[in-house]
Amino acid sequence: MKAKVIESAETVCTLEIEVEAEAVNLEYERHFSRQAAQANLPGFRKGKVPRNVLEQRIGASVEQEALNELLPKATMEAVREHKLRMVGMPSIESLDYKKFAPLTFKAKVEIKPSVALKGSLEGLKVSAPSANVSEADVDEQVLKLRQRAATIGEETGNPAAMEDSLLVDFEGRINGEIFKGGKAEDFNVVLGRKQLIPGFEEGLVGAKKGETREIKVSFPQDYDAAAGTIDIKENFLFWIFRIQKQHLGNNQVGHIVVNRGTQEHDAVFKQSGINVITTLTARSLLNHHRD
Question: Which of the residue ranges 12-16, 130-134, 280-284 would you say has the lowest mean pLDDT?
């Protein structure tokens, strides 16, 4: 690969980059082989389609995939070679890309400006941000991970309990009139997730399949449909059709047990090998710093 700086300013640098034809062809062949092995064409066995037929069918897609690999790779190599402190994403110009030929293009890169320090830092005081992540904070985040990966299990004949999934119809009225959002059919609600107006989910605890339950609630102050009727308690009728147990996320992808004294959480853990406590703590610190 060849790269040279053709234009440079305080915060912008333009690179002219050329990738050798051999490297372009190798990238093309790599993607072609992968797609060819997966190609299913009528009249041919999988993996046995003649190359000329495949070129007609998947050639354009392979070229695009190869280009998507070559551009960022070559740009980053050029940035490192010239020791540029890049910020943001480069913009690509004057792209010339053909099979069996060198790839050439220009990359306009925003860079950090050089800052000359004037004066002395002696006696300057700074305070570093800090964040306190408690065990309760970590437990809460782990539980959210489990809830996010929860699956709906078997139907149960037991009365509804918190964390159960209910299939319901409901209808509510204000001053005798059904209001916008006050009626729904085949509505799924998980008790305890605060999906509905405060009082609804608590009012459904203990309900049984086939039951019609009346719940009286007060609308919260910021609820649009209840403007001007905030202090009025209205009746809602719920028809319960199905009650199912929820299974919190476990080892569908990976499994990790997080111990907190006498507490223990099973959590879905997609980033295998990374300690979930470290991950959550680092994220909390980062968010605090951004704030």
Answer: 280-284
